[in-house]
Amino acid sequence: MSDAVVTTAAAEERRLSVRLPRRTGAIVAGSLLAVIVLACIFAPLLTSYAPNAIDPSIAFQSPSWAHLFGTDELGRDLFSRVLYGGRITLGAAVGATALSLVLGVAWGFGAALGVPLMDEVLMRTADVAMAIPQILFGLVFIAAFGTDLVNLIVVVGICLSPTSGRLVRSVVLAEREADYVRAAVAFGATRWSIAAKEIFPNTTAHLGVLAAINMANAVLLEASFSFVGLGVQPPRASWGTILQQGYLYIYQAFYYVLFPALAIVVTMLLLNIVARSLQSAPGGRG
Amino acid sequence: MTDAAVMPDESPALAVDRLRIELRSGRRPVPLVHDVSFTLRRGERLALVGESGSGKTITALALMRLLRDPLALAGGSISLGGDTELTRMNEKELARIRGGRVAMIYQDPLTALNPVLRIGHQLVEAIRLHAPLSKAAARTRAIELLGQVGLSEPASRIDAYPHEFSGGMRQRVMIAMALSGDPEVLIADEPTTALDVTTQARILALLDDLVSERGISVLLITHDLGIAAGFCDRVHVMYAGRIVERSDVFSIYANPLHPYSEALLDAVCRLDIDLSHEIPAIPGYPPAPTALPPGCVFNPRCGSRQPVCQMDAPPDVLVGERMAACHFAAERERPVDATPIEVGPR
Fold this sequence. Notes:
- The structure holds two protein chains of two kinds.
- Chain A is mainly alpha-helical.
- Chain A has one domain (23-280): MetI-like fold (Orthogonal Bundle).
- Chain A has helices at 2-19, 24-41, 43-46, 78-113, 116-131, 134-145, 149-176, 179-186, 191-227, 239-247, 254-280.
- Chain A starts with a helix and ends in a 6-residue tail after the last helix.
- In chain A, 43% of the residues are buried.
- By secondary structure, chain B is α/β, with parallel strands linked by helices.
- Chain B is 32% helix and 21% strand.
- In chain B, a hairpin with a 2-residue loop joins β11 and β12 (322-324).
- The radius of gyration of chain B is 21 Å and the shape is globular.
- Classes of the chains: A mainly alpha, B alpha/beta.
- Chain A binds chain B through residues 4, 11, 15, 178-180, 182-191, 197-198, 201-202, 204, and chain B through 64, 66, 91-92, 94-100, 103-104, 106, 108, 111-117, 125-126, 129-130, 153, 156, 160-161, 164, 174, 177-178, 181.
């Protein structure tokens, strides 16, 4: 009895140790990322300024204890704007990542498991899609459907899906050759039930890595789109729009662009570190 | 195969007629399996024995229509239970047969189980593919099956992952999955090759009990004549994609008709031989399917080769109940002792 308990506990421990990246770098990166996300979510608790509260008397103040990141041309508190802007940027990135994964999984599974013609069509479509500059595609899409947060999420999600589809396809092609898939066929399972019940669970490690990478790229894309005016519209703040506004005053107030830019760079860096360590973790593959 | 239609009750569990398999990758297809025919009677255990590359595994895969590009079925018929022609079925119909009326056990039980899913989950899925059971009922059945294949404490082990099991335990799980659909025919492709000798014996004994209880016909694919002797009723020897000898299990060990069978038997490492001599090996390699020798395919490696062997392909010579594709099969026959050495299940 006690033996069995020990065995199960040991197995449980093994299971966890396989899943968790052991390296401290990953843990630090993950924790910092959590701090950033939590700071954005709990922004009202961390700052007493409303992100859009205008006070021209304190325009262009350098960072101080009263205004950690300084103030902008209308006297808005930049710390508060970066935090609230992070909600939009990160929220949009999460939505776009989710969309890109859904599209990528459909794209990749369809190509890998469909008839050869379907594979050809889907993969050539992906090639063409990747050849179109993302900003250009965003411009056309936003021109057609209008500037809107949902449209921004959709356009970023679509931009990220061809590469996701390619990656998912390669993973599925590799898993498709595995013996357990052959065994499942021999037990009478059909193609799409094997895809859902056998292959998909084996792709989750790769999807985790892909999610982190897509998330990093989504943050960058959101910032790019907002920077050229296709994303969130003023006075709503996102990291990209703050950057865009601050860019006009770069010689007067360098801190105006410094902090949103840092937020983007640091978040992307942390996401990439997390993706990297997920990839090389004993349980992760690829 | 023709008499099968007359007496449906006596129809064979599986009848394979002139099965041909080709490799279609180059400019012209390369035949790998040439007109292989055999009959698996009901409740019988038949061994397909041969070296690597003799075509035994692709034959087994073809029986379940599991060949994939660039391998393709080029002809022949596979008749299941005398009433079902597998070569004319579409994927949907085949899915009902696979794991249902015909089940398969694989060589490597680790890779044949999905590494990220629990044993019970996989077993429940396999059961529910062929029986209209609820998840709970299928789980009960899964625990029952795991108990029958000799897994202790099946109720607590059912939620383990494959990597928590030993090789023997995994093969037991595979057997449980294979039996879950109540198959008529079980194809066991080298089921014990990945296991150590002690486990091998246990798994074979288990398989022996389970298939006799249920009256399942077994086609055992193996390169190990010892296993074939212990487990099977009849042995078919394959060489270069052909069946070169068909025999009952007793006669082939006492009096192999085909020189290849004889060479295979001589090459088996036994405990009762004189160790001062080297164990004889068969010289050379099996021929490449693209460069088959003229005449008898075995002639370049044959110890008793005659001029005719290099000219003409031998016919299938019938000697009593047995068959050998050798020009000299009849001359090679010796009367077999009526009470052969004990080669019952080990």
